[in-house]
Amino acid sequence: MKKFIQIAFILLISFSVQAQDKKAKSLLDQVTAKVKSYDNIVIDFKYSLNNAKENINQDSKGNVTLKGNQYVLNFMGMTKIYDGRKTYTIIPEDEEINISTVNEKDDSAITPSKMLTFFNSGYKYSMSILQNVRGRKIQYIKLIPTDPKDQRKEILLGIDVQTKHIYNLIETGKKGTKTTLTVNSFKTNQPLSKNQFTFVANKYPNYYINKLD
Question: Where in the sequence is the signal peptide annotated (predicted)?
Answer without folding.
Answer: 1-19
